[in-house]
């Protein structure tokens, strides 16, 4: 059915000594670590810089690409020009072409991950252009031969498709797709990269390894496969955003041996599947990490436990094993001197069986469907909360203020969102309105984002990140420490135990709101403190009806605020909870869900706009989280929310962050906001910890406000256990607990945020100056100092 393929290009293969081959081997041994190490190091550097609040270094990957091109390109160029051996010169040419292509592809990695669609367009276009240029150059050397029936794939092409499906299977099982546009673009990019690899490993390349009489197919598979594998390693290094390229570094190179075996078989059978032998295995191997992983989730914060990095490693290991088995199997079955190509019907059956298996794997153990990001549309008009009456001192006045704030917020949102909501509903974009910030969360990609950004009533459009599902939930975090036998060191350090014993104040009558990963409501240290009712728990992620927590972070922080048995600062206070973190990540929408619930709690299934109960709002909120750009927040994303809670008389306490000791690292909302009580961390010796983020905040605002114990803090964990954790997350709920003690001691202070902050600052104890990260002044490191519960409660008692 196919025209006879042309003879291989005439290549002069003059006798040569062993040294060119030795040089090629050394160049290959040099190339592999020079490619692998910078890729891993670049990802680690990017993650560490981001975790320390330094932002994403856009220059990093272009520099890595340039260094790789120089270090690999020079030896490859020498191999392409100097030796007389045809195989060695072919090796140099293909490695030189591959490293140049890799450098061109990797430049697109400078784009922020939030613009993933733009990255995929750049990747696809660059790879397609490279494939076109290489194909044109190859046609000048070898006349094109047109197949008699090019629409009917031969046995080799079908075997190549089968090999690619084997490499794709682990990702269908363990990964999940993004949005529609993102998935389509990932498919186009993978196809373009496959075409680029096929253009690099063309007929002329393979011919250099099959010269001689009689032909040596084993040599072509072994040596040609090794050289092709190094070339594919270079291509893989340039394919995928930061993190997503790491799996391809292991799963794509074995396709070189598969391609070698298939190419030998295609020449023997007169099959026109030579390019398909490379294009399909490489394209489908690349498609896995490109389409089925979110590069933003391959991150250091998710390395612990069985999260995306774990399952990505499992898929990579399975893909590598599959690639090696394919390489060995195809090499043995197809490259033997007298072996023939299986009949086309056999190859077609194998491809169809694997295609059916791929569909079955995706549907049954996998996660079929699309899991694209959503958009948070922030409107220009925000509620005017000036002149909200202070009312009478204490809870009654606070409740009246909260009710008025809630009324104004809802009225503003309803009035300004009505027309846009109707249009978004008509377009089936699933709008979810918010009032605490006048905003709407919707489905949509870059096109919808551009359309919304041009609307006059829209201030800006943020990408609200959405987590892709995991193959299996991570096991719940459990504590491995015994229950405490008395007040813990941190409780004693700030004098909370003296407040209970000498002043008789435990926080009774005050309610603390926890927005975090959840709370184990059945924990012995927390069960009695749950406020109860139908409006004390909200889970916008899983819609659970009672307090639960798998990760443990929220149970630990809530325990430090109100836990009994010596772990909590205000053990007599009540608590309510909301889940805004899943797998240690969130997005602006979920953060707003919980902050709205704290302003005006509502029953399960209730409408936050109409069913909110501001009279049931908790008094003080503990927030051990921050919303960085990678989750979709900009610097002012939550600013209207904290301003509204301030107007309502609800104290917002937030963690400074763990990006120290660098200066200016208090950057993730809501920590930098002036109406938030921002908390840093100290150790047992009252020294500010190295990880505690420093000020000044944006605009020169003095942050943090206070510090509290945050190193090796013992608190509750799901299942009734206990554990010690580090972080400003651990320090924050202790300050919230001190506020609860103050307001319990003097109910007239409830809702009086100005006087409460002043008392906390005036009674704080000094801490030793840090040895590093001084940031120009102690205020930008430790704020007013270490919170002193005993002094603060005594001062609160006498406040009038």
TrEMBL record:
Transmembrane segments: 21-39, 59-82, 94-111, 117-134, 155-173, 185-209, 221-240, 246-265, 277-293, 313-334, 346-364
Residue segments, region Disordered: 469-488, 544-565
Presence of the UniProt keyword Phosphoprotein in the record: no
GO biological process, any: proteolysis
Gene3D superfamilies with a match to the protein in the record: Peptidase S8/S53 domain (3.40.50.200)
Single GO term (MF): serine-type endopeptidase activity
Peptidase S8/S53 domain mapped to chain residues: 507-765
Sorted UniProt keywords: Hydrolase, Membrane, Protease, Serine protease, Transmembrane, Transmembrane helix
InterPro entries the UniProt entry points to: Peptidase_S8/S53_dom, Peptidase_S8/S53_dom_sf, Peptidase_S8/S53_subtilisin, Peptidase_S8_Ser-AS, Peptidase_S8_subtilisin-rel
Source taxon at top rank: Bacteria
Residue positions of the active site: 516, 553, 729
Coiled coil: none
The keyword Transmembrane is assigned to this record: yes
Pfam families in the record: Peptidase_S8
Family under the similarity heading: Belongs to the peptidase S8 family.
Protein name in the entry: Subtilase family protein
């Amino acid at each position: 059915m196919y025209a006879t393929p042309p003879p291989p290009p005439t290549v002069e293969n003059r006798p040569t000594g062993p040294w060119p081959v030795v040089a090629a081997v050394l160049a290959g041994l040099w190339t592999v670590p020079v490619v692998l190490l910078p890729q891993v190091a670049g990802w680690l550097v990017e993650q560490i810089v981001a975790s320390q609040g330094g932002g994403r270094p856009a220059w990093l990957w272009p520099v890595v690409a340039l260094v790789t091109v120089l270090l690999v390109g020079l030896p490859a160029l020498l191999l392409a020009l100097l030796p007389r051996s045809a195989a060695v010169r072919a090796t140099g040419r293909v490695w030189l072409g591959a490293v140049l292509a890799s450098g061109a592809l990797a430049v697109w990695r400078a784009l922020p991950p939030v613009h993933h669609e733009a990255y995929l367009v750049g990747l696809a276009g660059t790879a397609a252009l490279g494939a076109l240029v290489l194909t044109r150059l190859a046609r000048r050397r070898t006349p094109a031969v047109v197949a008699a029936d090019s629409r009917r794939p031969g046995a080799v092409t079908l075997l190549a498709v089968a090999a690619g499906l084997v490499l794709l299977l682990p990702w269908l099982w363990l990964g999940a797709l993004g949005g529609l546009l993102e998935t389509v673009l990932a498919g186009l990019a993978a196809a373009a990269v496959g075409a680029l690899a096929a253009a690099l490993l063309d007929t002329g390349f393979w011919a250099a390894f099959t010269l001689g009489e009689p032909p040596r197919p084993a040599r072509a598979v072994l040596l040609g496969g090794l050289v092709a594998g190094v070339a594919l390693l270079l291509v893989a290094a340039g394919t995928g955003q930061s993190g997503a390229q790491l799996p391809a570094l292991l799963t794509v190179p074995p396709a070189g041996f598969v391609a070698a075996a298939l190419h030998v078989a295609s020449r023997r059978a007169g099959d026109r599947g030579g390019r398909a032998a490379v294009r399909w295995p490489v394209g489908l191997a690349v498609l896995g990490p490109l389409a089925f992983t979110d590069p933003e989730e391959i991150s250091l914060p998710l390395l612990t436990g069985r999260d995306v990095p774990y399952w990505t490693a499992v898929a990579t290991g399975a893909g590598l094993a599959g690639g090696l088995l394919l390489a060995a199997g195809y090499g043995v079955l197809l490259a033997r001197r007298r072996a023939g190509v299986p009949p086309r019907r056999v190859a077609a059956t194998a491809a169809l069986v694997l295609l059916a298996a791929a569909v079955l794997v995706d549907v049954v153990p996998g996660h079929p469907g699309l899991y694209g990001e959503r958009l948070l549309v922030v409107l220009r008009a925000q509620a005017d909360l000036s002149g909200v009456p202070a009312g009478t001192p204490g809870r009654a006045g606070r409740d009246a203020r909260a009710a008025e704030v809630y009324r104004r917020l809802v009225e503003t949102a309803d009035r300004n969102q009505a027309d846009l909501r109707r249009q978004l509903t008509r377009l089936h974009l699933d709008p979810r309105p918010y009032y605490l910030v006048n905003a709407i969360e919707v489905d949509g990609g870059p096109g919808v984002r551009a359309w919304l950004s041009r609307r006059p009533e829209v201030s800006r459009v943020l990408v609200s990140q959405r987590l892709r599902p995991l193959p299996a939930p991570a096991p719940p975090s459990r504590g491995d420490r015994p229950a405490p036998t008395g007040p813990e060191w941190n409780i004693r350090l700030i004098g909370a135990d003296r407040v209970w014993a000498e002043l008789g104040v435990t926080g009774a009558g005050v309610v603390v709101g926890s927005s975090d990963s959840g709370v184990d409501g059945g924990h012995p240290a927390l069960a009695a403190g749950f406020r109860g009712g139908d409006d004390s728990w909200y889970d916008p992620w899983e819609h659970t009806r009672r307090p639960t927590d798998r990760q443990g972070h929220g149970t630990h922080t809530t325990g430090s605020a109100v836990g009994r048995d010596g772990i909590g600062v205000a053990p007599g206070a009540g608590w309510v909870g909301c889940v805004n973190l899943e797998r240690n990540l969130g997005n602006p929408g979920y953060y707003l869900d919980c902050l709205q619930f704290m302003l005006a709690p509502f029953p399960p299934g209730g409408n936050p706009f109409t069913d909110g109960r501001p009279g049931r709002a908790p008094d003080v909120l503990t927030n051990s989280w921050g919303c960085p750009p990678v989750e979709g927040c900009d610097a002012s994303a939550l600013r209207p929310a904290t301003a509204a809670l301030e107007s309502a008389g609800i104290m917002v306490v937030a963690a400074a962050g763990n990006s120290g000791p660098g200066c200016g690292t208090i950057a993730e909302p809501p920590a930098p906001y002036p109406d938030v009580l921002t908390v840093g961390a100290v150790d047992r010796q009252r020294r500010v910890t190295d990880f505690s983020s420093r000020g000044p905040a944006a605009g020169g605002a003095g942050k943090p406000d206070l510090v509290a114990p945050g190193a090796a803090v013992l608190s509750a964990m799901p299942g009734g256990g206990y554990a010690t954790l580090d972080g400003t997350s651990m320090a924050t709920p202790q300050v919230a607990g001190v506020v609860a003690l103050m307001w319990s001691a003097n109910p007239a202070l409830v809702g009086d945020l100005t006087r409460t902050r002043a008392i906390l600052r005036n009674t704080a104890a000094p801490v030793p100056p840090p040895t590093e990260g001084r940031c120009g002044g102690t205020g930008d490191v430790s704020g007013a100092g270490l919170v002193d519960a005993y002094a603060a409660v005594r001062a609160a008692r006498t406040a009038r």
